[in-house]
Amino acid sequence: MQPAPRHAFWSAKRVFVTGSNGFLGSWMIEELRALGATTIGLVRDRARPFGEPDDAAIAPDIVVHGALEDYELILRALNEHEADTVFHLAAQPIVGIAVRQPRSTFEANIRGTWHVLDACRELAGRVKRIVVASTDKAYGEAERLPYDETMPLNGRHPYDASKSCTDILAQTYHHTYRLPVCVTRAGNFFGGRDLNFNRIVPGTIRWALAGERPILRSDGSMIRDYVYVRDIVRAYLLLAERMEDPAVHGHAFNFSTEQPLSVVALVERILGLMGRSELEPVILGEASNEIPRQYLTSAKARAMLGWEPGWTLDAGLGETIAWYRRWLAEPAPRELAAQ
């Protein structure tokens, strides 16, 4: 099992988190605040609170309103709030949106990344560790699986290409300017607070709670990694801690449970855990611009960081299902979910 994040390490840190009010960002803020860090969150769009018992626990200590595309804003936030650590999590992450609107995806994912990196470069050593979130999609389609970190980045569709560029930019700033950067390439992560119900996990849970058959845009055969969001947060925190050793700088790390599943198998797993196995999925077979098979090895993260997933797939899904049961039972979230 992976080591727990160290309170003694984080309690004096000032941490800038892009995408801090999003799915992954909210879990990161919650964990950092529990560890005693001062959190500085970049927020582009105001969102309704998640409706949890203590929404304040997932709100940054300092909120900076603005977009990744605004370079002067990023530089000001890092400088004036004296950030020593950066988690660059913000992105336009939805494949379908990237296909419909590639320019806005490239602006956020590519321009936004060089803005964060160049602002850190300008601050001349004030920022001690930068974790840039890439994805397994940056590898593109490959003949050999699982992906390992030595394989080329080969994104071909808009979202995949934007993350390949994100990844290369991070490595460029390390190798050219010796910026203390590491890159993460995770499988598909899931968990509570993901309000994009087009994604397979929250969508399936919502359909099952409503007694409706899940609808799959694909033919259900695509193979993916699935990893619980709290495992991803712990992985990123562990990586940042390990970056005290400069020998770690410039590396990319895969994070995966190494248990690839087809989409239809994952849906059946969720339905089984919810006691709704009779809800047979409706398979549309309409998805396009998606890679048929993707999964990762985390051997490098085990060897260099000592990382292992802390939640099994069923344990993570169980917590996720419980979160949506609570959230969808509240009147305000139900209203939001219907929009």
Task: Break the fold down into its secondary structure elements and pairings.
Elements: H1 7-10, E1 14-18, H2 23-34, E2 38-43, E3 62-65, H3 71-80, E4 85-88, H4 95-100, H5 102-122, E5 129-133, H6 158-177, E6 181-186, E7 188-190, H7 200-209, E8 215-216, E9 223-224, E10 226-228, H8 229-242, E11 252-255, E12 261-262, H9 263-273, E13 282-283, H10 299-305, H11 313-328, H12 331-337
Parallel strand pairs: 1-2, 1-4, 2-3, 4-5, 5-6, 6-11, 7-10, 8-13
Antiparallel strand pairs: 9-12
Helix pairs in contact: 2-8, 3-5, 5-6, 7-9, 7-11
Description:
The strands form four sheets. The chain has a seven-stranded parallel beta sheet with strand order 3-2-1-4-5-6-11, with helices on both faces. Helix 2 links the parallel strand 1 (14-18) and strand 2. It contains twelve helices and 13 strands. By secondary structure, the protein is of the alpha/beta class.
Radius of gyration: 19 Å
Structural class: alpha/beta
How many DSSP H or I helices? 12
Which strand-content bin applies to the residues?
A: 5-15%
Unreliable spans are 333-339
H and E order: HEHEEHEHHEHEEHEEEHEEHEHHH
Choose one word for the global shape. globular
Distance between the termini: 40 Å
| Mean residue pLDDT | 92
Number of strands: 13
How do the strands line up in the largest sheet?
3-2-1-4-5-6-11
What is the makeup of the main sheet?
A: 7 strands, parallel
| Percent range of helical residues | 40-55%
List keywords for this structure.
single chain, 339 residues, alpha/beta, seven-stranded parallel beta sheet, two-stranded parallel ribbon, 12 helices, globular
